[in-house]
Design goal:
Largest sheet of chain B: 5 strands, parallel
Helix content of chain B: 40-55%
Oligomer: heterodimer
Strand order of the largest sheet of chain B: 2-1-3-4-5
Distance between the termini of chain B: 13 Å
Order of helices and strands of chain B: EHEHEHEHEH
CATH superfamily of the largest domain in chain A: Vaccinia Virus protein VP39
CATH class of chain B: Alpha Beta
Distance between the termini of chain A: 50 Å
Largest interface: A-B, 20 and 21 residues
Number of domains of chain B: 1
Largest sheet of chain A: 7 strands, mixed
Shape of chain B: globular
CATH architecture of chain B: 3-Layer(aba) Sandwich
CATH architecture of the largest domain in chain A: 3-Layer(aba) Sandwich
Bound molecules: S-adenosylmethionine
Strand order of the largest sheet of chain A: 6-2-1-7-8-10-9
CATH superfamily of chain B: Response regulator
Number of helices of chain A: 13
Radius of gyration of chain A: 20 Å
CATH class of the largest domain in chain A: Alpha Beta
CATH topology of the largest domain in chain A: Rossmann fold
Number of domains of chain A: 2
Chain lengths: ~290, ~120
């Protein structure tokens, strides 16, 4: 691939999604965009690049950006953030929202849905105490194809084994051929919507808790800062933000600071979650059992 | 170092499973059926058992029921590792006292994840 062709593609992908394609990603661009070229009846990648030079909008651009996203995910990914959500953030939210009995959660780069469904199951597992609560889980991604898969709630054996405890698998899934499909109750607990993090995210509403994990790592510092700023804008005053294991707000001008003792969790420095978290016994924070 | 007992009548599976488990910093032992595994456990309880279902002499479920009623037999984590993939089998295994359930084929990531879920990592 010619360097100027790579630069053109990388430029389009970055401006549309924020994803940075390093020069070492030529093989990735080739392998992922060859099927896109075929789909659009273009002879090869240079024909695809010529088409992109003519028109910077439309379905081809959309498909190119989608193809360059990395959608790697798993149920209860990294475990700890889900423990922290259950043992620190949820108890705080429940005690502070007794009147409304309502919690709004946003998974801001949900890929094929494992993250929001893990949360839906985790909440369902809390049982009686939260029975008359309303949980809105909104899950968004830039990539329409992964959202389609997410809505189906259908996963391969390989996918369910990555993270879904056996007890929860038999409780919430049904075997369909060689796959496993989530039951309608859990599926209907999550609303999926296409949303670009660089777009107008105010449209998705305000949230008590935001999960935005393993997407900022693909952005450059200024895009990261811009996204964190907009997440901050839709996060309730005392809300909590979860980032991925390799992500943080360090070096970014933001009011969201790491919550003490709770890795991956960020909140405004003076808020309740921040004051509340250190009071949780370490024993609880270290417990790993999901069920 | 903690110990993992791998119980499977297939030598290939025992070899692959032990390689993975060693990577996770466990010492390994192996048994070729449930009865041998039970004797091995009664001598010295491992920290975790990776357990096949279908084996001659004594199968995985029978082994597990015996293990859980043996002195100290409630302590090891037991992770089934089998080609049985029906929800019914998984339920039966859990009722018999299994902590986790892996459907073959598996890889390092899946085993690592299950070890983490049952609190071994
Ligand atoms: C690696 S996945 C992370 C999935 C999940 N949050 C997790 O941690 O397992 C990253 C997702 O971010 C999405 N993504 C990339 N750029 C985006 C953008 N600008 N707006 C919204 N989603 C984006 C990709 O489509 C992909 O599905």
């Amino acid at each position: 691939m010619k360097p100027e062709d790579f630069d053109l593609i990388a430029g389009i992908v970055k401006s549309k999604s924020g994803l940075v394609l390093g020069k070492d990603k030529t093989y990735l661009v080739t392998s992922r965009l060859t099927p896109v070229a075929r789909k659009h009846k273009l002879a090869d990648l240079s024909a695809l690049v010529s088409a992109l030079r003519l028109r910077r909008e439309g379905e081809l651009v959309h498909d190119v950006v989608e193809a360059m996203t990395t959608n790697e995910t798993s149920f209860f990914r990294d475990l700890k953030p889900f423990d922290a959500f259950r043992d620190v953030v949820l108890p705080y939210m429940v005690s502070s929202r007794q009147k409304q009995k309502k919690l709004r959660i946003w998974c801001a780069a949900c890929s094929t849905g494992q993250e929001p469904y893990s949360l839906a199951i985790l909440l369902r597992e809390q049982g009686g105490a939260l029975a008359n609560w309303r949980f809105d889980i909104v899950a968004t991604d830039l990539n329409g194809a992964v959202l389609e898969r997410a809505r189906s709630g259908r996963y391969t054996q390989f996918e369910v084994q990555r993270g879904m405890p056996a007890k929860l698998l038999v409780k919430y899934f049904r075997k369909v051929d060689n796959d496993w499909q989530l039951n309608p109750e859990i599926r209907s607990a999550v609303t999926f919507r296409e949303q670009n993090l660089l777009g107008n995210i105010g449209a998705v509403g305000r949230f008590d808790v935001i999960f935005c994990r393993n997407v900022l790592i693909y952005f450059d510092p200024s895009t990261k800062e811009r996204v964190i700023k907009s997440l901050e804008g839709v996060l309730e005053e005392d809300g909590a933000l979860f980032l991925g294991g390799a992500e943080s707000t360090v070096g970014i001008r933001s009011n969201l600071k790491p919550v003490k003792n709770v890795r991956g969790c960020y909140a405004r420095a003076d808020n309740f979650v921040t004051q509340f978290a250190p009071a949780i016994p370490q024993r609880v924070l270290n417990s790993r059992a999901l069920v | 170092m903690r110990t993992c007992l791998v119980v499977d009548d297939s030598k290939v599976v025992r070899t692959v499973a032990q390689r993975i488990v060693r990577e996770l910093d466990f010492e390994t032992r192996e048994s070729i059926n449930g009865l041998e595994a039970l004797e091995s456990c009664r001598k010295s309880m491992p920290d975790v058992v990776l357990l096949d279902w279908n084996m001659p002499v004594m199968n995985g479920i029978e082994f597990l029921r015996e293990l859980r009623t043996s002195p100290g037999g409630e302590r090891p984590k037991v992770i089934f590792c089998t080609t049985e993939t029906d929800a019914k089998c998984i339920e039966e295994a859990i009722t018999a006292g299994a902590d986790e359930y892996v459907m073959k084929p598996f890889d390092t990531e899946i085993i690592r994840g299950k070890f983490a879920q049952v609190g071994l990592l």
